[in-house]
Every structure is written in C-alpha cells, then in structure tokens.
C-alpha cells in the first residue's frame, strides 16, 4: 500500500512558522558574513607580501627558521637550517613549514618570501568559511555571520593572518578540533572526535604548547556507552592512539636529531630556557597577568610583534567583556565540561610560560566568538526573564558587538595613535607598506654583474641568507654578534669567520660582505677577517634608489 498523505493542517500552525525577528536575524547574519569576507579581503587578502617589510621575516629567529625549514624540506627533504657551511637543527617544530610547502612550490622563485604570509592568508579565510558553515549547519544561522565578523575583526586575527608567525595555523587546528568535538557530542558519534584527535595531534607539530588542549579529547569518554565496558575502553584508547600517532613526526624528528624524543631545538639553542622550573613556573604568572591587564586597559607601550603586521593590539576590552558574557550564558553540558577543562589547562600553561607575549593566547581569542553565539541568538528569542530586562540585555550585547567590530576603544600604530579604530587601521595598513630592505639588498646583490657563488659575511641573519641564496653560496655571521650564540653545543665567532674566509680564499672562491648602509659598511670593515696581501673593496656602492653596500675581498693594490 502506498503511504497515506495527510492534508490536514498542523494543530499549532505557529509552531512551524518563523518569527519576523528570526527572519531579520538570519538576514542580518548573512549580511554580517559578507561584510566579514569583504573586511578580510580588504585588510588581509589584498596584502602583497613582496611590497611590505614582511619579506624581512621578522621577528627573528622564528619567522626566519620557519622559512628556512620549508625551503630545506622542499629542496632536500630534511628539516634543517644552515649557517656558513654547517648544517644545524632548528629550534622550532616543522608543522608550519610543512603547511607552507604548497605555496612555496607554487610561487615563482622571486616571490618565495611571500609563502609564509600566503599560507596564513589562506588559513584565515578557511577558518572564517568553516566557522560560518558549521554554525549555519548546526542551528545557529542567526548568529553565524556575526560570530565570523567578530572573529575577522579581532586585531590579533587580522595581524596574524598577514604575518609570518605560526600562531594562526595552530589556532585553526584547535578551533576545527573543537567544532568536530561539538558535532560529535551533539550527534553522539565517535567519528568526528577521532578526527578532532588527529587535528590536535597534528597541531602539536606546529606549536608544542597546544598539547595543553588535549583534555578536550575527554569527550570520547562522555559519549553514551552502546556496548560493553571493554568496547568503551577500547574506543577511548583508540582515540588516544590517534592523537599520539599524529604527534609522532615531532618526536621522531627530535629522536633522529638529538637522540631523545623529548629533546627539542630549544634544548640545543636555548638551554637556559629549558628544564624543570625554567619553561613553566608560577613565578611567570604575575608578569603574564600584568601583560594581559595592560592589553585590556590599553596601557601597553613600546614596539612589539603585533606592530610588525598590525596595529599593535591583540584584543579589545569590549571583546573580552562579550566573551565573559557568552561564557556565563553557556549551560552545563558535556562540551562545556571537556572544552572548559582544556581551556583551563591551556590558560594555566600560558600563564606559567616563561615567554611573555599576548599572541600566545590567540587560540583562546579564536575560540571566544563561538561562546558568543548564544548571546546573539537571544536577539530573536521571546523574553523569558521579563521584556524590559531582555531588551536591555540585547541592547548592551548589540552595542558591545558593534564596538568590537568597529574596533573601539583601542590604540593602533607605532607611535601609538589613540584616536583611531583597529578596523580602520587594519584596512589602511596594506596601503602604507614598503618593500623590505633585506629582500631588496639581496636581489640587488644577486643581479649584480660579475657576482659568483662564494662566501657571504653579514650581520643579516645567515639562516635567512642561506635559505634564499642559490647553491654554491655560504652565508655566515661576521663574528660572534649573531642570534645563535646562546648554546654551548655550537660556537661561532670571529675566528670561525676567519677560517671560513681562509678556506674560500684558498679555493679561489669569491668572498663578499653585505651591509645595509654606507655607515654600517665602514664599521663592518674593522670587524671583517683579513688575509695578508688582501683588502676589502666596495663591490656594490650605496645607491639612493636601492639599499645596501656590498664589499668584496680582493688582492691589495700594492700586490697587483
């Protein structure tokens, strides 16, 4: 028999109807999503890294080593950096350099330095689209666009999406893992949680501190038990195994490089910052809290990493107030239990970490807009605590959202501009940039006539130079004034430079020295190694239109 089709109307027609307020909220959400994409395009996607100082790969050594690792992986398949003619380990994991590889392979050689920024630009766009799609699919269509707009206008998000840092990529993996776990708990399915475990494990290969988010995988144990206790235990063990397997690349590389899976490049290069009580200690809580308070009250001063690709701020006080209100509205649930535990553990880890920088808290900032979703959905819900109270709360939330999106109150730029907005500054930032000096001087050097592969001495990062110079070149520091002198395992000073120069001279290889300015070149000559019967001469003089001075070691005129 064919199924009977009922033509009768539902008993309560209003139950199936969508209220006008809800329709307006959904329409506003789509509009907000379009605005978020337009803002991201104007503030991030239109940035051409080759026309900015981003090609200098600051701050060092972070960005320099990420880029050098990616170049090494692409050319030799090994994760290593090079100083002079020596192959050395990096202090950083290989996760972000691996993410860089598609862009590095696709870009022409002349634009290789754009790969870190292009990678972050792509990941930022992916994060915005995925968050909107997930919220829209899971019954949050009224708030999805507003959540994405709040995320897109976080000053830290804008700055990191057009930076050479690895912070954004790590946060993207964490947010995706939280979304998968939320979906798995909502549908009582283990598949999304297994995938979340894989993403969190891979995130460890980007930034080791992201291990503190591992407690969110407790969600697997909170799924309903459908079989025996043995099956439940096996499922939990399998989730942990997936996580551990995905963390293996870092531990295998550590073992192959240092002979121990838990020894990292930091143990090699910065032994003073590693070890029990050095990396994580309660004595760092007060300085971290002071740093966060200065950020919240807009009282920080001085140049910092946020100024390299943004306005200097990481978050706004209005955004934090919204995040707190959103967290207070959350109802007890399995997701709140495991997610709150993970956020708490990560917060403790960040507060006790020796390195002070607000960007380390960015994963929490990226998760915060998700907690604001319920506040925005309330705009279309009938009041439950009294119409007057509900209207007042909605007005306050709407005002906070508007202030956060516009980017006030805040300060931006360096020196600080106190009467501006973060969003306006973010849109103006791409129009006020100039090509980086390091990349320009290197391009000028390589295109100079009669230049040939040889030794290059400079105060510029040798890791940076070796990553960009063609085969046959060996870039090294002039003397002990470099960024790699904090380790007892490897030593380089003026005597090392002299030995390198002597060996190259005996092989009849060219020997160059690069300085950024004429004044720097004059002071550099006194520090450069000398060989009897030779002198340093100007090979490329200073040029008002092109920076840098290049010297070359030549036979002295008296011996010619």
Any chance you could write out the topology, listing elements then pairs?
Layout: H1 13-16, H2 20-45, H3 62-75, E1 81-83, E2 86-88, H4 95-106, H5 115-137, H6 144-152, H7 155-161, H8 167-187, H9 191-203, H10 219-222, H11 229-258, H12 265-269, H13 285-296, H14 306-309, H15 317-329, H16 334-351, H17 362-371, H18 373-377, H19 387-406, H20 422-428, H21 437-446, E3 455-458, H22 462-468, E4 474-476, H23 494-506, E5 511-515, H24 518-525, E6 534-540, E7 549-555
Parallel strand pairs: 3-4, 3-5
Antiparallel strand pairs: 1-2, 5-7, 6-7
Helix pairs in contact: 2-5, 2-6, 2-20, 3-4, 3-22, 4-5, 5-6, 5-8, 6-17, 8-9, 8-17, 9-11, 15-17, 15-19
Characterization of the model:
This protein is 53% helix and 6% strand. The protein folds into two domains: 413 residues, no CATH class; 123 residues, no CATH class. Helix 3 packs across helix 4, helix 5 runs antiparallel to helix 6 and helix 9 packs parallel to helix 11. The termini are far apart. The protein is mostly helical and 560 residues long.
Which terms would index this structure?
560 residues, mainly alpha, 2 domains, 53% helix, disordered N terminus
> How large is the share of residues in beta strands?
5-15%
The tally of structural domains comes to 2
Widest beta sheet: strand line-up = 4-3-5-7-6
What is the averaged pLDDT score?
90
Distance between the termini: 108 Å
Question: Percent helix among the residues?
Answer: 40-55%
Number of helices: 24
**How many β strands by DSSP?**
7
Major sheet characteristics: 5 strands, mixed
Cα shape: globular
Helix-strand makeup class? mainly alpha
Radius of gyration: 27 Å
Question: Which residues sit in consecutive blocks of at least 5 with pLDDT less than 50?
Answer: 1-16
């Amino acid at each position: 028999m064919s199924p009977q089709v009922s033509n009768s109307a539902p008993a309560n027609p209003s139950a199936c109807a969508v209220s006008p307020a809800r329709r307006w909220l959904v329409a506003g959400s789509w509009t907000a999503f379009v605005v978020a994409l337009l803002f991201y395009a104007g503030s991030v996607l239109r940035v051409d890294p080759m026309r900015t100082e981003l090609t200098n790969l600051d701050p060092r050594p972070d960005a320099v080593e990420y880029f050098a690792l990616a170049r090494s992986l692409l050319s030799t398949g090994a994760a290593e950096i090079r100083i002079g003619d020596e192959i050395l380990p990096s202090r950083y994991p290989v996760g972000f350099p691996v993410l860089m590889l598609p862009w590095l392979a696709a870009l022409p050689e002349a634009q290789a330095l754009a790969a870190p920024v292009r990678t972050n630009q792509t990941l930022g766009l992916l994060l915005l689209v995925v968050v909107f799609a997930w919220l829209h699919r899971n019954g949050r269509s009224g708030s999805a666009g507003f959540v994405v707009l709040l995320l897109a206008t976080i000053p830290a998000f804008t700055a990191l999406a057009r930076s050479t840092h690895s912070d954004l990529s790590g946060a993207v993996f964490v947010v995706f893992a939280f979304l998968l776990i939320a979906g798995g708990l909502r549908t009582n399915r283990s598949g999304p949680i297994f995938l979340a475990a894989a993403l969190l494990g891979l995130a460890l290969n980007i930034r080791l501190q992201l291990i503190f988010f591992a407690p969110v995988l407790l969600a697997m144990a909170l799924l309903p038990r459908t079989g025996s206790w043995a099956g439940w235990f096996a499922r939990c063990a399998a989730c942990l195994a997936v996580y551990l397997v995905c963390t293996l690349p870092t531990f295998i590389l550590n073992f192959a490089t240092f002979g121990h899976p838990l020894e990292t490049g930091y143990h090699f290069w910065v032994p003073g910052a590693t070890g029990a009580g050095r990396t994580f200690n309660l004595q760092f809580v007060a300085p971290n809290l002071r740093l966060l308070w200065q950020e919240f009250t807009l009282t920080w001063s001085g140049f910092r990493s946020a100024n390299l690709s943004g306005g200097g701020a990481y978050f706004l006080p209005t955004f934090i107030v919204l995040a707190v209100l959103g967290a207070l509205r959350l109802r007890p649930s399995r997701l709140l239990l495991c997610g709150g535990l993970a956020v708490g553990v990560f917060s403790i880890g960040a507060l006790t970490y020796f390195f002070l920088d607000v960007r380390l808290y960015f994963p929490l900032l990226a998760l915060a807009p998700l907690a604001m979703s319920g506040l925005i959905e309330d705009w279309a819900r009938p009041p439950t605590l009294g119409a007057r109270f509900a209207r007042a709360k909605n007005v306050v939330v709407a005002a906070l959202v508007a202030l956060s999106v516009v980017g006030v109150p805040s300060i931006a730029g360096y020196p600080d501009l106190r009467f501006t907005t973060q969003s306006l500054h973010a849109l103006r930032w791409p129009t006020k940039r100039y090509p980086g000096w390091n990349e320009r001087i290197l391009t000028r050097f390589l295109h100079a006539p009669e230049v040939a592969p040889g030794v290059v001495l400079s105060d510029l990062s040798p890791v940076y130079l070796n990553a960009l110079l063609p085969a046959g070149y060996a870039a090294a520091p002039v003397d002990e004034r470099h960024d790699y002198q904090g380790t007892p395992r490897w030593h380089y000073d003026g005597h090392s430079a002299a030995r390198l120069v002597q060996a190259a001279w005996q092989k009849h290889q060219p020997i160059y020295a690069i300085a950024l300015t004429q004044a720097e070149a004059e002071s550099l000559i006194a520090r450069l190694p000398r060989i009897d019967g030779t002198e340093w001469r100007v090979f490329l003089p200073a040029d008002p239109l092109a920076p840098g001075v290049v010297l070359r070691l030549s036979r002295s005129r008296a011996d010619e």
